[in-house]
Write a structure and sequence with these properties.
The protein has helices at residues 12-27, 51-65, 67-70, 81-85, 87-93, 109-117, 163-167, 175-187, 205-208, 213-220, 241-249, 266-272, 278-291, 310-323, 350-375; strands at residues 3-8, 31-32, 41-46, 75-80, 99-101, 123-125, 145-149, 151-152, 171-172, 192-196, 228-231, 253-258, 296-303, 327-332, 379-388, 393-397, 409-412, 422-431, 434-439. It is globular, with a radius of gyration of 23 Å. It is α/β, with parallel strands linked by helices. Helix 10 runs parallel beside helix 11 (241-249) and helix 14 (310-323) runs parallel beside helix 15. Helix content is 35%, strand content 22%.
Length: 441
């Protein structure tokens, strides 16, 4: 039995592709292994969203290519977004690569590998015809938490983003298909569903002629065994009153809004191809907090976009001070080929981009400290993730913290707990983005 390793780069949506490939490979007679040195076939499922992600993916490919020096029989397969975007360059510039498989062809991974093992030449398998693959997965997340992808592709066409050209137009899964997968995950022990897509708020419009995220969330809450439903990547213009109301009224849905706004300056938002302005974003934040006082709002910001002036930066800093986001991620603009922003005038120097990023991080750090101080003395429901034997504390997440991107809470408990348990914890201390406390026995 041939052994296959898979290195999955980038976002959670890409991780699901890797999990689906794993299932295909196992059903095709391959054994999955964690150690590339032991693998007969090495797969790198790549990301190309921004320059840093591309660099990470390329470095991983080059690192694995070294294994072929001692074992020329090994296969190196490159899949995912980088493969789709730069298919010819990858196969030409990295001769160790045996096959390049794009985002719309990974369902053929078994046939592609078998053909190469049979003596076939290096190949490129990429098509522009969009794929919406709904096959089984071998989940790699903890037993109690799972990502649930409800759609593929994107229609938003932001001027800085390559995703629509790589992943294609927005394609919703059916409600029935999503619910079936969620029910199967609940039966296997999943307690937290993290609903994802490139834009979750657009869900259903292509399939049903109307937005269906609110309805879908309500149905997911009806599944026995699911305790938390968390939603990522809600575009601000489509966070409707109906969606806010279903989040407010359904106890299982975490009061956690992941709303990437990218900037506050109306001029920069227009240049980015975004569909909201500062006043609309401010109004949405106000509406959410009036209806759900304990709502946690996470956002992402891009600094250094072409043409961004000092005045635009001051607008952004004043907006951040006004909005008081509970969670904020900031990135420097990445100049990507084949996007409208690539050719825009007044590109910003990299050193200046980093300075602006630091200014935003300093401003947000003060807000983070203030928000965390407010939690001291409160009692939080915590999803237990494990135990740190060094500090002799359990750790986990509250509704305010999503997996991998937010903080954790560390706590003492007299009772023996296991991952996936829920426990009440009183917060005694806050340090940076992490909380510390003790279980309420």
């Amino acid at each position: 039995m041939k052994k296959v390793s898979i290195a999955s780069m980038g976002c959670s949506k890409n991780l699901i592709d890797s999990e689906q490939m794993t299932a295909l490979l196992e059903s095709g007679g391959f054994e999955i292994c964690d150690n590339e040195a032991d693998a007969d076939v090495m797969i790198v499922n790549t990301c190309t969203f921004i320059e840093d992600a591309q660099t990470e993916s390329i470095n991983c490919i080059l690192e694995l290519a070294q294994y072929k020096k001692s074992d020329s029989g090994k296969l190196l397969i490159v899949t995912g977004c980088l493969a789709q975007r730069y298919k010819e360059q990858v196969i030409r510039e990295i001769p160790e690569v045996d096959a390049v498989v794009g985002t719309n062809e990974f369902d053929k991974i078994v046939d592609i590998i078998n053909a190469r093992l049979g003596g076939g030449k290096s190949s490129v398998s990429c098509t522009e015809k969009p794929l919406l693959f709904e096959g089984p997965r071998v989940r790699t997340t903890p037993d109690y938490t799972a990502f649930l992808k409800i759609a593929e592709g994107c229609d938003n066409r932001c001027t800085y983003c390559v995703i629509p050209s790589i992943r294609g137009a927005y394609r919703s899964r059916t409600i029935e298909s999503i619910l079936k997968e969620a029910e199967e995950m609940a039966e296997s022990g999943v307690k937290e569903l993290i609903v994802i897509a490139q834009d979750t708020t657009r869900y259903g419009i292509d399939l049903y002629g109307e937005y269906k995220l609110a309805e879908l969330l309500g149905k997911l809450c009806g599944i026995d065994g699911i305790e938390w439903v968390r939603v990522h990547y809600c575009y601000p213009e489509l966070v409707t009153d109906e969606l806010i109301e279903v989040i407010a009224s359904q106890p299982k849905i975490c009061n956690y809004f992941d709303i990437p706004i990218q900037h506050s300056s109306d001029r920069i938002l227009r240049r980015m191809g975004r569909r909201t302005n500062r006043a609309q974003i401010t109004g949405l934040i106000k509406k959410i907090r009036e209806r759900i006082p304990d709502a946690v709002i996470r956002t992402s910001i891009i600094v250094g976009f072409p043409g961004e002036t000092e005045e635009d930066m001051q607008d952004l800093l004043s907006f951040i001070d006004e909005a008081r986001f509970e969670r904020l991620g900031v990135f420097t603009y990445s100049r990507e080929e084949d996007t409208p922003a690539y050719d825009m005038p007044n590109q910003i120097d990299e050193d200046e981009k980093r300075l602006r990023l630091e200014n935003v991080m300093v401003a947000q750090a003060e807000i983070d400290d203030e928000n965390n101080e407010k939690k001291i003395g409160s009692v939080q429901t915590v999803l237990v993730e494990g135990r740190d034997d060094i500090i002799k504390s359990y750790y986990g997440r509250t509704y305010a913290d999503s997996v991998e991107i937010d903080g954790k809470i560390f706590f003492k408990s007299k009772n023996k707990l296991k991952p996936g348990d829920f426990v009440k914890v009183k917060v005694d201390e806050a340090v940076d983005m992490d909380l510390f406390g003790r279980a309420v026995e």
